[in-house]
Amino acid sequence: MQSSSPAGGRRRGTARLAAATVAVTVSSATLLVASPVAAVTDVSPGPVTWQVHDAAPPGLDTGSLRTVSGTSVQGFGNLFADVDTDPAPLFDEQMVRGFGMTFDGDDTFVPTRSVPLGEVLITRELHVDDDGTWVRFVDSFTNPTSASVEVDTSFGGALGYGSGSQLGTVATTSSGDAVIDTTDTWTVVSTPSAQVRPVALVVGEPGTPGALTGTGNQERNPFRTPLATSGHEANFYGYLATVDLEPGETRSLVRFVAVGEPGDVASAAASAAALAADPDLSELDPALACTVANFTPATLGLDAARCAEAGEPSLPEAPELPTATSRSAYDVSTATIAQMRADLRAGRVTSQEITRAYLDRIAVYDSGPYAFHAFITVAEDAMKQAKAADKARKKGSTAELLGIPIAVKDIYDTADMPTTGGTRALEGWQPETDAHQVALLREAGAVIIGKTNTSEFANSGGYSESGYEQTWNALYPSKTSFGSSGGSAVAVATGMAAAGMGSQTGVSLYAPATGNSLTTFRGTDGMASVHGVMPLTWGQDYAGPIARTVTDLAYLLNATTGTDPKDPLTAQADRYRPTDWTDALDPSALAGARIGYLPTSFVSSYADDGTGEAVRARFADLEAAGATMVEMTPPPSGGASPGGSRNEEGWARYIGLHPDFPYPDGDALLASPLVLPYNQRTLRDTPRMTEEQVDAWLAYRNQYKARIAAWMDAADVDAVVYPGFLSDVYNNDSANNQLTADRGTGVLTSAVGLPTVVVPVGTNPHGYSMSMQLMGRAWDDAAVLGMGYALEQQADGQLLTSFAPPLAYDPTRPPHSFRQGRPEHSFETGRPAHAPGSGPATGRLPESQYSD
Description:
This protein is about 20% helix and about 20% strand. It has 20 helices and 34 strands. The chain is globular and about 85 Å long. The relative contact order is 0.11. The longest helix is centred in the C-terminal third of the chain and has 25 residues, at about 690-715. The chain is of the alpha+beta class. Strands 21-23-22-24-26-25-30-31-29-27-28 form an eleven-stranded mixed β-sheet, with helices on both faces. Strands 8, 9, 10, 11, 12, 14, 15, 16 and 19 form a nine-stranded antiparallel β-sheet that branches. Strands 7-6-13-18-17 form a five-stranded antiparallel β-sheet, with no helix packed on it.
């Protein structure tokens, strides 16, 4: 694209554009920019810091604002698009991303590629003003076809949450009222707090081809859901506009986001009015300015002669779009481990065909503008592993997971792949040995297909945003995957792996499983080894599986649970672990069971979308399976937690396993400049826990388990049920964990260390996935799994994604190249019209990886 030289100084408004007489063409191949190392990019030319989701780590690359300091912005400025073609593009009506937005080191973010949505190409440019009180967005739409196309757009996001002090309401508009309508040029949203800066949005002039056409709910498909006028959902502003594109035409929409002084609506309104009257297009390519559709040429200071002289804008190219196919005829898109085991044993398929199918799906769905970003690394030897499994089967092996491709979270040690913990500070570091559970998976015959994305150091339950990428939800591709095991969950839910191994310190198994409509199991403390798994908090971390079904969980638990001499916390596991976890899978396991519940666990502290009530309505499934529901009193607390840094203790134990670890301790690792800035710590010297502190922590956990068992005994219940979420699932570009989903159910699983199975139970009133968590007493693991199985059979509540359809079979397709263990690119094309197998396109793996 083109940009104006800043050498002539900076003046406001149309004068800047008039001064830009020399346009410099910059292509995606020649763009010279600063290379940021920070997560997202902060721009602070004045009193406000604008945090932009560009292509810098974690690479969300939406061009939206993660936060704006001192405001209620929580993911704002994102763009949704709806292209009027038949068939509709696969990612129609979703958040646009993948622009390759790159910061110039000063004040502007430019795209390095166009994003294809169907046949339409979309780019985004963002500019921060000198004084830092406003940001300009330019969204451009190009129609390279020979037919006219209509594109509906929605610009917006979250300007608050809840319905109390954090609620963002319309304070005023250009028409002088507090109601947004199509006569408005600008709006101002504020919260009740006098310390919070109001946020203004300039949307364009009424009556222009790109004018405001209405409002929608930016969290719930703004094209189909109106903006609420009260309650929690009134925070989610979507400003609608339509762009009509003739063949070969580019049209653009310019919006300004401005902030006022703290608590001062008038200052924000004044800024918005000034920008609306004299839109500042400084440093914008004059040719691109001439494509603006939501302001008149007169307002922009443009005329036909100047635009003819400027010519056509130079925009970056979109990636090539190869055909979406697979060299394997076997459809793994929704296959379960149970199905694959049966087909492998019957000789209907080989492990190589299964693995090839998964690798092709990774190549299609895990890179490019609309990638899910489930994997950090793909195993280079995956096909060799599969070939070895097929040979072992021919020799009579009946290993539990023989030839089944499993993905593992990138905090599990793997001797054949790097283990990064999701941080650039450990990029390329490779342990010499496998984590205990990885070794057990290999013994069971599994193909370890790759390492999945995680929030850096498994820190976040709300997102999976590593130093490499951020994972997107499989069911709702504009939403968060949740964390920190989001990569594993999304790999399973999109059919890129048969199952995934994750971990949970707080919510990091159940949140991604719930958000992607999968099952998971968190066992009693010590049921499975964490030896060789990077820590978050020693003594509370649990490493376990995520799968499509409870049956698949049982196969994985057979392979991965039990006593490990290298992990003293597992000393009792063999005593309580069943010989075969599948023996617990009884559809009548809930018959006669008493299931406790706490009414308050089904009430959100801020959301009002009916999720908690919808989960309670699914008590009918428990009752239909033979259970009796028992209302309980609140549980006892565990008392004061003992002292000591369990974070540092975990790192000390982990680093002690690896003589070549690149940092002396956890403090040094977390202080690395390569860590995402919001996770980075100043260098400290945190002492390890003493033996007395270790013993005190273990005693604390044990007595807490006993207290909860006594609480359950007093109510005479076999398990306690909790909801997975208490709200809708929210967009992926907020910094606020509350705007991922309300997970404040009070479930005791991680706080106490108790066995819990998570089972999908359908959708909430807005169509988002729900689950139930069944929690039992310590070491009742097999019984809890059995109750989950019985619930699963009754509820039949799993959702399947429509955004990763089966791939068409084509044994002749050319090889796809990988770069550093990841697919080089993938692509978004049309939604399949009818038959499976016509989904988005991609290339494929190197031919050597397919050799038999």
